[in-house]
Amino acid sequence: MTSSKPIADWILDGLKIMGVDSIIFSPGSRNAPFIIAASARIDFKLRVVLDERSAAFQALGEIEALGKPVAVCCTSGSAIANYHPAVLEAFYSKLPLIVISADRPASRIDKGEGQSCRQMDFFNPHIGASISVQEDILKLALEESLSFLSQQVLDKRAPVHINVGFQEPLYDLMPKKTTMNFTVERALHEIDLTGALYGLSQCDSIAVIFGQLSHEQSLKMREDISSGKYTFTCFVDPLSGLLDLPDTRPISDLLSFTPQGIISIGGQWIDKAPKFHLRALHLKVHVHLDFYQSWDVTDASDFIHIALNQFPEEFELRLKEQLIKTSSVKKGYNRVELQWSDALVFKTALHHISDWSHLHLANSTAVRYFSFFNRPVNLYANRGISGIDGSLSTAIGASLARQKERHFCIIGDQSFIYDSNALNLSSLPSNLTIIILNNSIGAIFDWLPGNRALSSETQRLFANEQKVNFESLCSSFGVSYICVTDQQELTNAMAEQVSGTLVIEARTMDADNTAAYELLKRT
């Protein structure tokens, strides 16, 4: 038996055509038809997450770990609003998140019904596509709509939204009678390098820059760079996963060069300084190579987006003399003597992480330390919109998706607190260690030069000093917990064999974390 609402099963059929294997539900009544229909099937992995915000970020973690679309489903009203932060991240990181929201019938919106709001086109403009339908929609019309959404998911890796208005009753059952089936017209991408080659040929010098890369992209680029295939210098963002290679230079080194054009690959860059530097140069041309997205970050006179996820051999052959080639300079960050601080915590933790483990870096300070201490790992970070919300949930989602492999999450105290609802699961991952950089304050604001000129009262409003008892917080969720206050204790904690999720709180509130960070920058 399944739901008495055929549309629920039709949409689930559509999800299978889009490649979905996993659906995360949040409890509700209005989405009961979807829950009933899904639980009657064996072709989906299902789980429930109470907090919709956490549920959606956990879905992003699964997408990043497995490279497949994941669906989330909620009830009507304010529930849908809690998906919004993850939808923003999915939109800018090109992650195929499929949001399914149940709704009241269109005739009852704005008429005093509980748990109702205007859900049609809720996520515009930060959505690949959205449809809003009523439960009595004709099957053929729904097939056409789902086929269009599938193109956005499969060809553009864009998030999409399906909103369905249900009449009561919501819990009635019936045998499944019909199946949804449709074809997806996949887009054909024709690659023409002519315009890009002409524009770049007018430049005396060209820099090649790698931004954040997916795991698959990073492995391919590592192979090409290590084989000596490229004769040019690669200026790389830490989240490219390439910074440990001998023939790369940090993206910050671009400040010493004045290229007339650049070729960029991948996602966003953490460091602002190279962006400001390149904009000030008034570049002739910027060519961005990426299959799904384009980042016109330099404001060049001519910006060209090419749907490629690799460096074309023709660029190497035709532009060889113009591509910047310089000696690789590796700084000795590991030889810097650090006192107990966030920086030393990061350095020590990374030292005890095995190569090619999965490393999740929360935004704010944690992600920036990877510029100094790096190693070959599978990297994750929500840099699409770079918010602190959802970092822990994303790590948990990825850990659950790849349970046979070890995962680590390095996260600040503010980010951990903000997303602590992620720990409210019936079954947490057994392969995840979480290291909290607890300096008791929003330390990244201390790194900003303008902040130091402000009054202490104004700085307090930036910082949000906290006095959370992390041990009690972890205990309430049944999570194993260790507190460390020096390097040896951290080393011992990293060696602990714990069955289940482990939280290591590294207390650095009395340390001069800003001084340690400045020391690394001067090295």
Description:
- By secondary structure, the protein is α/β, with parallel strands linked by helices.
- It has three domains: 2-174, Thiamin diphosphate (ThDP)-binding fold, Pyr/PP domains (Rossmann fold, 3-Layer(aba) Sandwich), CATH 3.40.50.970; 194-318, 3-Layer(aba) Sandwich (Rossmann fold), CATH 3.40.50.1220; 335-522, Rossmann fold, CATH 3.40.50.970.
- The chain has helices at 6-17, 32-39, 52-66, 84-93, 139-156, 194-201, 215-226, 272-280, 313-318, 342-351, 365-369, 391-401, 413-418, 456-463, 470-476, 487-494, 513-522; strands spanning 2-3, 22-25, 45-48, 70-74, 97-103, 129-134, 160-165, 173-174, 206-210, 234-236, 248-250, 261-265, 285-289, 302-306, 358-361, 378-380, 407-412, 432-438, 480-484, 502-507.
- A six-stranded parallel beta sheet has the order 3-2-4-5-7-6, with helices on both faces. Strands 11-10-9-12-13-14 form a six-stranded parallel beta sheet, with helices on one face.
- The longest helix has 18 residues, at 139-156.
- It is globular.
Rg, alpha carbons: 24 Å
- Give the CATH class of the largest domain: Alpha Beta
The count of β-strands is 20
**Largest sheet: spatial strand order:** 3-2-4-5-7-6
Count of spatially separate domains: 3
Strand content: 15-25%
Give the overall form.
globular
CATH homology superfamily of the largest domain? Thiamin diphosphate (ThDP)-binding fold, Pyr/PP domains
CATH architecture of the largest domain: 3-Layer(aba) Sandwich
CATH topology of the largest domain: Rossmann fold
Secondary-structure-based class equals alpha/beta
Oligomer: single chain
| Total count of helical runs of at least 4 residues | 17
Write down the overall mean pLDDT.
93
